[in-house]
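Quick one:
INPUT:
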């Protein structure tokens, strides 16, 4: 039986700002550049009371909370604090899997520092974070990653929640089915049509029924509804994707930002040169003026071998956007994914992953 922690810093960017500037303490702080094109990077708990959330347009945040203090993000400082926190994690276990600058999974089944329980280890880690960084963190303690991540949000901020193996079923049963990773608004609606609102409702369906309706994701739903998650904590995962994106100063139509695509392709290409792995899939990401996110991707038979090839594929992916020509876009991104070790055999070229995401789908910053 594994003992897994999910540790999540509380309102991380905003808390760093409040720590470093005492005049901000107790005030609603929004970490974002001001302007019509900006989005919120983080909000203090004082700002969240007014409904301000990460990834929200900054202008909307300002309408919701007119007294908010806007602070431009300083990622150099946030990364420095993140390194401090990771050093604390590594005192207790080498099995640390970063998810972002402000959260990580830890496997403390066999901790480096003797401890009577995973709960005691989590308490020690949180106390050290507070003492050494003057910041707070919340933690979930559970038998696996899925439950630990839900638990870490249970008593935020500056809290901890423990789900013991014997408590897993009772803990999951009343939860909204949207708590299961991958269940977004579209899937939630499909499940609601089947009468499924909670994890307990989902448990009434067999693996075969769910797989027939939802394919391989149906199998995952079956396992998660029963609290089963065999994924190990994986430290130092190899790079899976590299991308660059930018928000326009004003909304543009599809063929008005070729120069931006070329610039972002170059930025992405240079970043891929710093890894020993080879990316096979080129991805074009777009966000409409209505905050609808679309991705189009292509996997050639041979991975792109030059900036020119990468740029050409990225530009060609515009032709697979099927929205009206009058549609305007506020953001574009170019990425490379499907990384493999050099020398691994290439598969057949294929088109895949044409999709869109809800406006609340956001990327994560580089790892903790």
């Amino acid at each position: 039986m594994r003992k897994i922690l999910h540790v999540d810093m509380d309102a991380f960017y905003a808390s760093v700002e409040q720590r470093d500037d005492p005049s901000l303490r107790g005030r609603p702080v929004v970490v974002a550049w001001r302007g019509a094109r900006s989005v919120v990077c983080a909000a203090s708990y004082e700002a969240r009371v007014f409904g301000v959330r990460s990834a929200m347009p900054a202008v909307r945040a300002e309408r919701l909370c007119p007294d908010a203090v806007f602070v431009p993000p300083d990622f150099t400082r946030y990364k420095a604090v993140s390194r401090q926190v990771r050093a604390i994690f590594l005192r207790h276990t080498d099995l640390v899997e970063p998810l972002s600058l402000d959260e990580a999974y830890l496997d403390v089944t066999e901790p480096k520092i003797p401890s009577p329980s995973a709960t005691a280890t989590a308490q020690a880690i949180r106390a050290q974070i507070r003492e050494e960084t003057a910041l707070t963190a919340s933690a979930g303690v559970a038998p696996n990653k899925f439950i630990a991540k839900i638990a870490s949000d249970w008593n935020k901020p500056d809290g901890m929640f423990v789900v013991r193996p014997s408590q897993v079923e009772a803990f999951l049963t009343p939860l909204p089915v949207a708590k299961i990773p991958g269940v977004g608004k579209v899937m939630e609606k499909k499940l609601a049509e089947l009468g499924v609102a909670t994890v307990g409702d989902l448990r009434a369906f067999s693996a075969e029924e769910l797989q027939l309706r939802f394919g391989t994701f149906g199998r995952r739903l079956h396992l998660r509804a029963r609290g089963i998650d065999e994924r190990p904590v994986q430290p130092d995962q190899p790079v899976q994707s590299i991308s660059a994106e930018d928000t326009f100063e004003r909304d543009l139509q599809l063929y008005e930002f070729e120069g931006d695509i070329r610039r972002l392709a170059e930025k992405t290409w240079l970043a891929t040169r710093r890894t020993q792995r080879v990316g096979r899939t080129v991805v074009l990401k777009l966000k409409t003026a209505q905050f609808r996110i679309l991705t189009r991707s292509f996997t050639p038979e041979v991975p792109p071998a030059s900036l020119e090839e990468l740029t050409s594929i990225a530009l060609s992916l515009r032709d697979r956007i099927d929205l009206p020509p009058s549609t305007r876009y506020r953001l574009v991104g170019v990425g490379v994914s499907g990384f493999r070790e050099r020398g691994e055999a290439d598969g057949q070229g294929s088109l895949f992953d044409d999709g869109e995401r809800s406006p609340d789908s956001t990327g994560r910053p580089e790892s903790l």
